[in-house]
Amino acid sequence: MFNIGEVLAQLSEDFPSVTASKIRFYEEKGLVTPQRTPAGYRQFTESHIERLRFVLALQRDHYLPLKVIRDYLDAIDRGEGPENVPPGVSASIAPRMVNQELAAEITGRARKLSADQLRSESGASAELINSLVSFGLISSMGGLFDDHALRVTKACAALAAHGLEPRHLRPFQAAAEREFGLVERAVSPLTSRRDGASQARAAEAAREISELCLSLHSALVQGHIARMDS
Q1: Contact 93, 118 (CB under 8 A)
Q2: Closest CA to 129 of 112, 152, 147
Q3: Which pick of 13, 20, 35, 189 has the fewest CB atoms within 10 Å?
Q4: What mean pLDDT do residues 80-106 have?
């Protein structure tokens, strides 16, 4: 059995932002259920730690709301293969239980990619990648790109096949920044508090608001497309 401090010690190397209050927030949301001593202290097992590692990695690498993660975990625990799973993970994890091996696989997905790796995995040309960088659609740190840059590059490579070049896509970056500004203002009452639980609630609320904004955007665009065919 592990106390919450020992849990943090095991998780902090891979997830430096994890705090005791964030773990308590996950407990509040039903993502992990530690045992309690007669005095009320939380006690975690190895499986609880791997479950937390799994949740933290899905949030970090796939930007999933906690409700989606909880439903996903519940389905795995029932031995089911959930229909809506994170992109790129379904084949490797459903319908297995959350265990050390699985958590290590998911955690390992947080990679840093060189320009050559980004080009190879996205199918984009070096010229396209350079253009995306110059127009501010992707960026690197120390010459390395993250999985977010990979997703942007894949989307832009597919759009390039339709004649849409990076210079045409700058409005998407501007729109994303404006949307983030809206989200940031909406969650500012939570972000003004510095405790870990409030920060976790703010991040969760931001994800939910972002999903709603994306749904609205999609509905508005689809409405215009439908009128083309009417």
Answers
A1: no
A2: 152
A3: 13
A4: 49
